Amino acid sequence: MKKLELLAPVGNFKCLNAAIRGGCDAVYFGLQDFNMRDSAKNFTLEDLDEMRKMCGKVKMYLTLNTIMFDEELGKIENIIKKARKNIDAIICWDLAVIELCKKYKVPFFISTQASIANSKAAKFYKKLGAKRIVLARELNLKQIAKISKVIDTEIFIHGAMCVAESGRCFTSQFLHGCSANRGKCIQPCRRSYKIIDEEGNELKLENKNVMSAKDLCTLPFFENIKKSGAVSFKIEGRNREPEYVYTVTKVYRKAIDKKLTDEEKQKAMEELTEVYNREFSEGFFIKSPTADDFTKSEDGEAKKTKKYVGKVVHYWKELGVAAICAVAEINIGDELLIVGKNTYENVKITSMQINHKPVNKALKGQEVAIKLPFCRENDEVYLRITK
Asked: What is the CATH architecture of 5-161+213-293?
């Protein structure tokens, strides 16, 4: 059997560090042009050398999977030419990008934007030179198994589900002039709606979020996913925060490496609910979604949120102690999240000192010493709060 790959989303350096800390085998990311998450911070061509050093053996997949226009082809060629020495593959579906990948001998995967849902299409792209295809999200496990005999396949295992054809919905473009096909979707499907007739009579809806799908979560049946024939398991979320990337990656890393007991699975599900979610759905893997797979969530259902409380101003490595300049109250027993370009630490405070004297709390404007795992000057400090 081929090694199963865990593929994590990264929208900035903090998320890249969180994904690596969480145990991913590969990351996928966009540059500031031509990717399906235009609102993410994304990376620049100049960042790729540093990303490569951070990733080490972790593979790097660059997404170039929006629709492309004639006047952009020169810029795309320049990106591929300059990026090829640092990346392991390009995720694309436009035939012009495919041709450029072949010209510069860059391995390419076919994006889910191509909506590949049958073996004949898979054979076509294999003949074209694709090393892998990211399957359409409408497939069930049996269909995935059949196509996976033709070519290496990648499937989404967790994260947001688009109510329309993934990335090819025109609602955002029609209503707001922001094309999903260019990575600019502002997600009108996630809003709540009212039905009002011409006389102003309003129809009360049981669920105002009539187009908002629940998030995909395959953990409850992940052993079936592992046997699906797919070789790469992809987490959605290039717009998400580092704690989302870290937590989801860590949970699925453990699920790939071993069969979880019922107790471990329950604990893992609790961890997944702590970070951003719109409630969970099985997607199309087991059966077709029903009305129950639409969420009632307005702003997400994460059980924990975070509040910025300060930054690290110094770290004494030999003592394992950080000096934090507080911008809000910090107390003994608080759960802190320390995040930086090369830092991701989650720790519960057991002791604090101000001017070398033990204290139970630090107030806004005070500099407090806290024992922390290794961190760096200017790392951001957040208080993790249970809702």
From this structure: Alpha-Beta Barrel (3.20)
